[in-house]
Structure formats: C-alpha cells, structure tokens
C-alpha cells in the first residue's frame, strides 16, 4: 500500500495480502483448468477449490467442508441464503410459509433481498434494535409466527461494529423449526465464528472484507438445509451454478487460513482502536461514540460530531491522505442519516455528522497518531465555515 495513505476504512474493503496474491497467481497463469474437466489440468484446479473449501470451513466453524458454497460476493451469499431459503421453504410447505423476519439494521444486500421477496408476495417484518445497536433474541422471538419461513439477522453491523447474539437467535429459530441466516460479512476474520456450534443454518462471508480479492464470497449451508438456487447450474452440488472462479476461490481460502491464524492478534487491534477512540473523545469537542461498548468488533469505532456533515469530514480527511467513511461505502454521497443510526434513535443532528473508522491488516500506531493529529483540526475548521458556503 502507498506510504502516503492512511487507510482507516477496512469495513469498506481491505487490501489483498501478498500471501493471497501468491497463492492465486498459478491459477491465473499456468493452472487454468476447469475444475469440472476430468483430465489432470482440470483436476489440479478441482483440488485447489476443495482445499479452499476446507480453509473456509475451518474459519466459519463448519462441521464439514461440503457445507461451504462458493459465490461471487457477500451480497450473492445473502441473496442465496434469503431468497433460496425462503423460496424452498415456501415450496415445501405448499405456500404456508410466506413470512421472513429481519432487522432494521441490515446491510442493503439483505434489505434488497427482502424487498424482492415482498414483491413476490411474501410478508416481511423488521425487528428494531436498542440505542446500543443490538438486536435481542427476545425481540426476534416475539416476531415469529407459524408462517415464518426464515429469519435473517446480521452478526456484526457494518457501521457500528455491534455484535448480535447469534447463538441465542439461532436457538429461538431452531426451537420453532425456522431457518436462521446470519450475514457474517463484517465479522469473518475479525472474531471467531462457530457456525455449527451456534446452530445457525446459513452464514454469509465475503472475500474482500478479509484481505482476499473482490468478487468472491461463500455461504455456509448447514448439512440437510435445502435452498432453491439463485444461479442455476450443476456446480457446487447444484447449489450455485457457474464455472468456479478458481483463482479467487484459492485466494479466499488462503485469506481465511491467514485470518484464522491471526485471530489471536485481535487484541492488538482492539488496543489500537481503543487508543483511537479515547483520543478522539478527548480531543474533539462534541464528539460522541455510537454503538455497544461491550458487544462489538475489535477493529472499528463509530462517532458523531454534532452539527457537522460527515461527508464534508470525509473529504477534508481525504485531502490529508486519510481514508475513512461516513457510512456504508455503497451509500456514500447521500446526505441522509443512515438507517442504522435512525433505528438506534440517534438524533439527526448527530447522525448526519457520523464517521466510521475501521482498522485492519497493516494498520499501525502511526496511522492512529496521524488521524488524531488531523481530525481535531478538520472538525474545528469545518465548524467555522458558514453553512451557506458548504
Ligand atoms: N453484508 C455486509 C454486512 C456488508 O458490510 C457488505 C459489504 O459492505 C455486504 C454484505 C456485501 O458484501 P459484498 O460487497 O461482497 O457484496
């Protein structure tokens, strides 16, 4: 990564680790076989895909590598879980199961899938969260009924980093025979995942959030859970069609292996994040930290600066070579409060002036110090600019 850039937006995307590039290169050059081909060149690609499946299975805590389905991204994994799960249950129940429960704080990948289900005649319901950004198992349990086909609740929120009680959520769903999906795109590689032990049925991850390339993801599908495919074809045991993206799958596998080995270093990241958080709260008047303090990812912090527009702050920091986010990357550019902060009941005066800082592979003490040097001045400067000039 360029020396001059301070990258504090690892929840948006991450740099691809050199070890991952190295693992991928042979499959972009001489090992170009189709894993579906019977001859040796194809079978070498097959072997690489199956090795990656084992590596992903280990990271998510699957009981067996066959529970991993490769996809093109986290959004596709969420779509396959939600649309595929709901459609399958609907069909098996002869239309009786036609309701899906989710939450008000999900990523657009999930929210758009829910909208699609609604257009296809399903009813949907979004459970709220507390002021800390956490969804409780009790709130979800109260929303379940006899028509519920599937529940989808994210593991870690992409804006606040709040970590949901997925094991308890999975338990209330399992009790009633309802499929439970969790979007673990933000938590994979940052905290230990135990899909099998937690009792979740479906769990989505994405390569580019854990130092693999963009355009590859995976879905954990508990043994015995059937999905109606969203991309048809014979690959991935009829669960996801399309010739496998071998190089990217190999990269995802290697990244999962590295992330698994690195989980022990999460504490170092947490210490760095805490330093950044404490520094901002001490140095920037009117700064407020959002989201749960006790149940959250170790790598990110979320702030509100009263009376400021977060987008202006992002631009001001960019001019100093610092990459941060004022909300989810996909909606950057819109000066509306995020739906997550709205669900948490954050006042619009604060919600519009929000900033997400997320650390990851390659983050250093010097990055944090640079931000702590630049941010207070940037906030002060922006506060002096008359609103009519912004
Ligand atoms: N879910 C969450 C929580 C995310 O943060 C993201 C990406 O920002 C996605 C899903 C979508 O992942 P992808 O970009 O791989 O489609």
Write the topology of this structure.
Layout: E1 6-7, H1 18-28, H2 40-60, E2 68-71, H3 74-92, E3 99-103, H4 108-119, E4 123-127, H5 137-143, E5 148-152, H6 166-175, E6 179-183, H7 195-198, E7 202-206, E8 217-221, H8 246-262, H9 266-283, E9 287-289, E10 300-305, H10 310-318, E11 322-323, H11 339-343, H12 348-351, E12 354-358, H13 365-384
Parallel strand pairs: 1-11, 3-4, 3-5, 5-6, 6-7
Antiparallel strand pairs: 2-8, 7-8, 9-10, 10-12
Helix pairs in contact: 1-8, 2-8, 3-4, 5-6, 9-13, 10-13
Bound molecules: pyridoxal-5'-phosphate.
Mean pLDDT: 95
Total strand segments: 12
Strand content: 5-15%
How widely separated are the two ends? 32 Å
| Number of separate helices | 13
The bound ligands are: pyridoxal-5'-phosphate
Low-pLDDT stretches: none
Q: What is the helical fraction, as a range of percent?
A: 40-55%
Q: Which structural class do you get from the secondary structure elements? A: alpha/beta
Strand order in space, largest sheet: 2-8-7-6-5-3-4
What series of H and E elements makes up the topology? Answer: EHHEHEHEHEHEHEEHHEEHEHHEH
Gyration radius, rounded: 21 Å
Shape: globular
Specify the biggest β-sheet: 7 strands, mixed
Q: What does it look like?
A:
The protein has 390 residues and is α/β, with parallel strands linked by helices. It has 13 helices and twelve strands. The strands form three sheets. A seven-stranded mixed beta sheet has the order 2-8-7-6-5-3-4, sandwiched between helices. A three-stranded antiparallel beta sheet has the order 9-10-12. α3 (74-92) runs parallel beside α4 and α10 packs across α13. It is globular and about 65 Å long. Bound molecules: pyridoxal-5'-phosphate. Residues 73-75, 78, 107, 109, 154, 158, 183, 185-186, 206, 208, 217 line the site of pyridoxal-5'-phosphate.
């Amino acid at each position: 990564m360029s020396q001059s850039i301070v990258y504090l937006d690892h929840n948006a995307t991450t740099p691809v680790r050199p070890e991952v590039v190295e693992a991928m290169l042979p499959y972009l050059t001489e090992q170009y076989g189709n894993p579906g081909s019977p001859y040796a060149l194809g079978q070498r690609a097959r072997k690489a895909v199956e090795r990656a499946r084992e590596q992903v299975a280990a990271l998510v805590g699957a009981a067996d590598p066959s529970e991993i389905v490769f996809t093109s991204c986290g959004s596709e994994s969420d779509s396959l879980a939600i649309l595929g799960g709901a459609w399958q249950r609907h069909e098996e129940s002869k239309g009786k199961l036609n309701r899906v429960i989710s939450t008000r704080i999900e990523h657009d990948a999930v929210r758009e899938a829910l909208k699609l289900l609604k257009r296809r005649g399903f009813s949907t319901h979004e459970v709220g969260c507390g002021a800390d950004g956490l969804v409780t198992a009790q709130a979800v349990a109260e929303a379940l009924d006899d028509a519920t086909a599937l529940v989808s609740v994210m593991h870690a929120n992409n804006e606040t980093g709040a970590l949901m009680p997925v094991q308890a959520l999975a338990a209330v769903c399992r009790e009633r025979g309802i499929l439970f999906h969790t979007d673990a795109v933000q938590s994979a590689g940052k905290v230990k995942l135990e899909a099998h032990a937690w009792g979740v049925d479906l769990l989505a991850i994405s390569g580019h959030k854990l130092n693999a390339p963009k355009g590859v993801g995976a879905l954990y599908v508990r043994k015995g859970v059937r999905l109606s495919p969203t991309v048809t074809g014979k690959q991935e045991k009829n669960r996801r069609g399309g010739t496998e993206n071998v190089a990217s799958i190999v990269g995802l596998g290697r990244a999962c292996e590295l992330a698994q080995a690195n989980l022990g270093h999460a504490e170092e990241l947490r210490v760095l994040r805490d330093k950044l958080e404490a520094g901002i709260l001490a140095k920037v008047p009117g700064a407020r930290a959002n989201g749960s303090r006790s149940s959250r990812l170790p790598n990110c912090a979320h702030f509100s600066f009263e009376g400021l527009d977060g987008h202006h702050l992002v631009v001001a920091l960019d001019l100093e070579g610092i990459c941060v986010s004022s909300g989810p990357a996909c909606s950057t550019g819109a000066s509306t409060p995020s739906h997550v902060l709205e669900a948490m009941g954050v006042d619009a005066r604060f919600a519009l002036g929000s900033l997400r800082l997320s650390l990851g592979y390659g983050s250093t003490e010097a990055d944090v110090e640079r931000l702590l040097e630049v941010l207070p001045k940037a906030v002060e400067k922006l506060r002096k600019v008359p609103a009519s000039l912004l």
